[in-house]
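Thread: Newbie trying to understand structure tokens

Hi all, I'm a second-year student working on a class project, and my supervisor (Dr. K.) asked me to get a predicted structure for one chain before our next meeting. I've only ever worked with sequences, so writing a 3D structure as a token string is new to me. If someone could post the tokens and maybe explain what I'm looking at, I'd be very grateful. Here's the chain:
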Amino acid sequence: MKKLNELTIVEARRGLQEKRFTITELTKACLEQIKKTDCKIKAFVTVCEKEALKTAVKYDQVLGKNLKIYEKKPLFGIPLAIKDNFCTKGIKTTASSNVLNNFVPPYNATVVQKLLEAGVIIIGKTNMDAWAHGSSTETSDFFTTRNPHDLTRSPGGSSGGSAAAVAAHQVTAAIGSETAGSIRQPAAWCGIVGLKPTYGRVSRFGLIAMASSTDSPGTLTKTIEDAAIILSVLAGKDPKDATSNPTPGKNYHQEITRPIKKITLGVPQEYFLPKMDKQVTAVVKKAIKELKSSGFKIKKISLIDPKYAIAVYTIIMRAEVSSNLGRYDGLRFGFSRKAFGQEARRRIMMGSHVLSAGYFDQYYLHAQKVRALILKDFKKAFKEVDAIVAPTSPSVALKIGAAAKDPLFGEMQDVLVEASAMAGLPGISLNCGWVNNLPVGLQIFAPQFQETLILKIAHQYEKNRA
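---
Reply by user tm_fold:
Sure, no problem. This is what the structure looks like when written as tokens:
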């Protein structure tokens, strides 16, 4: 029998409606798991114990009078963690950087506000690579988060704290953000579900910007159903975010239960890299065979080699980083820019260089042209197939310390998700097997605003493996 902190959102809601336990008991179970395990995992920057318990007691009283509250508030009483780059009113928000160590926002990010309106209980704020600069959660200015499956290994990043918290059952689910891999890669390394929606599907208002043209808030959950439930809450146009898309969201949880039509899945041979872990390759290819056995048509396709996405992403991301970090000065936040960590300084310098006179056309403009070619390449592929499946990461979780050996560690670990992120496509990573007791991720991505499709495919695969 599952412990309360191990429940999914669907299971927790059902249990609460059937009065098998209370919201307070569910919240306490998560807080107790954090106390028990976070001394080793270090997933949280801030734990909101008093506030969470106070809210839980209040919500129990509300639920006792109205069991139908889930019709209007689908996440009522569900304990969630928030990545520490989303502004939370009255709760410290640091982006895991010393520069913002004392910053308490006077407002909520739209994502946070929507979650609160849906009834979420915020358990705390999770650790991340400082400013989201990294793929291992080792560049946090505070401490390194560890993978719950093996404490000597990284949980991935930059949403490593959120992924580790979910994998360790410290929370029911968590919120992350992805610029190019920061949700899907840690989901793969921690063996959970990571959903990156289409760019603009979910509002960026109140999200501390990394690269504004690709930043996408998303979810880290235990199941596909849970990801669909949270996306249903978050999706939609936001007047506070000019880049949010007017295309309305849906009840994705309801959508994934409907029959799935005949689907053709493309398998890009370029995404099985020559130097990739052979065991990871074998596990992913087995998963693709399982998809074929369950009724999906599999078709080999060709895409632009993902190595070109590394160059494009490196240039564009660093250019946008240098611009976005320019707003953080001592007058406003109380720290000099010497408080920036080494990784932030590297990115600021390179970004300023590619935007400088004499180099803008040579680097930044050229990268944007290649980005357009990548998008065109995907559009061509989607005329042949409905969605694309591939490995999420070229390896299982690496040992802590690996990031320090390579200035482009993040780009190399995110190589298989960078192109789809630069094109603004929706993508999802889910566990498809294990190598030496470490999880392997399978990614599915599709044309823009086709979240329903990737959720359906992933849900079908998840059900077949159960």
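A couple of things are worth pointing out once you decode it. The CA atoms of residues 140 and 239 lie 32 Å apart. The radius of gyration is 21 Å. Feel free to ask follow-ups in this thread.
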